[in-house]
Design a protein that fits this description.
- With 256 residues, the chain is an alpha/beta fold.
- It is built from eleven helices and nine strands.
- The protein has a six-stranded mixed β-sheet, sandwiched between helices. Strands 5-7-8 form a three-stranded mixed β-sheet.
- Strand 1 and strand 2 form a beta hairpin.
Length: 256
């Protein structure tokens, strides 16, 4: 439901708030669609000089709504393309992207940060990418961006073992620009967004285009997406999501 994404545009800062705190801000198809629509529209709106992404409540986001994944794995749904639109809109976005992250940022909650230009973490932030644990593969071009950012060894551990990275380590590894006390998070992220909004917009856009090849990232996303879709329909994925629903550890050793 689109009310789970709150949109505000004030003084050149377009703020996108994930507003589903009762479900840990887990992202649904409708939410992905609203986020994608808003980011794509911002490219044509000169009043949107900076985009700020934040989450309501005690968690940034638990990632994709597991119920929707489980429906695809069980053959009950064909899935959605709005998540693809969303991550591609991040790759192609020419506006500065700022993220304010508190609590857990799971899956796409972490990989979307690789597309943000400034990332502010609360001191209680925890980043994780447990794709393999769900019998899936990385997405959002993170299979390219994460090793480039933090090195192969650390990236592989995050992906293959689902290791959680606390805020301090995330800052040291280069996944964030700032770590601040939780009660200072929104103010710090907003202050950075305001500074960017005062900068010459054309120069910011040109600089970002020089630093990031959006179409190359989209090509990586497409390659990942093919693998992701295939993995989502495997026996391993069915076991992963069945175990999640039954609140038990999955047993992949018995899956053919």
């Amino acid at each position: 439901m689109t009310e789970h994404v709150r949109i505000e545009n004030n003084n050149g800062i377009l703020t996108l708030t994930l507003a589903r705190p009762d479900k840990k801000n887990a992202l649904t198809d409708a939410m992905y669609g609203k986020l994608a629509d808003t980011i794509e529209s911002a490219e044509l709106d000169p009043s949107a000089r900076v985009i700020l992404i934040r989450g309501e409540g005690d968690m940034f986001t638990a990632g994709n709504d597991v119920g929707e994944f489980a429906a695809v794995a069980a053959g009950k749904s064909e899935g959605s393309r709005n998540v693809v639109r969303f991550i591609q809109s991040l790759a192609r976005c020419t506006r500065p992207l700022v993220a304010a992250v508190q609590g857990r940022a799971v899956g796409v909650g972490t990989t979307m940060l690789l597309h943000c230009d400034l990332v502010v973490l609360a001191d209680n932030a925890q980043l994780s990418t447990p794709f393999v644990s769900l019998a899936l593969v990385p997405e959002a071009a993170s299979s390219l961006l994460m090793p480039a950012r933090i090195g192969y060894a650390r990236a592989y551990e995050m992906f293959a073992l689902g290791e959680t990275v606390p805020a301090k380590s995330a800052l040291e590894w280069g996944l964030a620009n700032r770590v601040v006390p939780l009660d200072k998070l929104d103010a710090e992220a907003l202050a950075l967004a305001q500074r960017l909004a005062r900068q010459p917009a054309g120069a910011l856009i040109a600089t970002k285009r020089l630093m990031r090849n959006g179409e190359a990232l989209v090509a990586q996303m497409q390659a990942e997406g093919e693998q992701f879709a295939q993995r989502l329909r495997t026996a391993e994925a069915r076991e992963a999501f069945t175990a999640f629903a039954e609140r038990r550890p999955p047993d992949f050793t018995k899956v053919a």
